[in-house]
Amino acid sequence: MKNSILILLLIAALGPSCIKEIQIPFIPVPKMKTCPWPAISTEGNATMGFKINRQNWVPCVSLNFYGIQGVEGSLRESDGSNRLWLRGFYSINGVDTSSTLDIKLSPLKTGLIQPETLDLLELRFHISSNLGLKTKTWRLTDHSQLLYLEILRLDTAKNIIAGRMAARLLSESGQDTLRLEDGRFDLHYSAY
To answer: For the chain, give me the number of helices (H) and strands (E)?
Structure first.
């Protein structure tokens, strides 16, 4: 009994220093089938994909949780701003592990886009695990970190947007960066 109490006291005294913090997985390993790497297309195929630090990241949802889609977007045309919002959402089992990539920019036009010509440019990559108890976010902090953006198709009659992109994002802590390379998106958007 005395030995058990001593062991418990020793564990209680050393416990916090012996506990290793579990790292948030950078890109979750899917428990279900992975979504295939999308080809570059311009047909509104509801696809998006990026190489994030050389690892494929393809938005997909293993469980349609509260109506969330893998890829969605909207374009504000009514006020003439042509403000684009795109989101890619990756989830394992609905809420266990998820990551999102949000892109906002305006004004939108086809062709190669120079960052200094944009009124609005926001990129954010966010990961969450353990039902949101562990999170980390990276953002585009400087327009010069948008390395490449090309709109391949902007069809306002059929509500299709397609493009390619590359950027560098900085973590909110300022400790690390993400390289988004070989990015592509092709989807139908909602217009308002």
So the answer is: 1, 12
| Dist CA 77 CA 119 (whole Å) | 15
The pTM score is 0.75
Q: Which two tokens stand for residue 112?
A: 């190669």
Nearest to 146 by CA among 172, 128, 126, 164: 164
Using DSSP, state whether 156 is helix, strand or coil: coil
For the stretch 89-147, pLDDT in tens is 877 655 556 788 889 989 888 999 988 888 889 999 988 876 667 788 999 988 889 88
- d(Cα 67, Cα 1) in Å, to the nearest integer? 56
pLDDT digits (tens, 9 = 90+) for 36-48: 899 999 999 989 9
Query: What is the DSSP code (8-state) at residue 17?
Result: H
One-letter amino acid identity for 175? Answer: Q
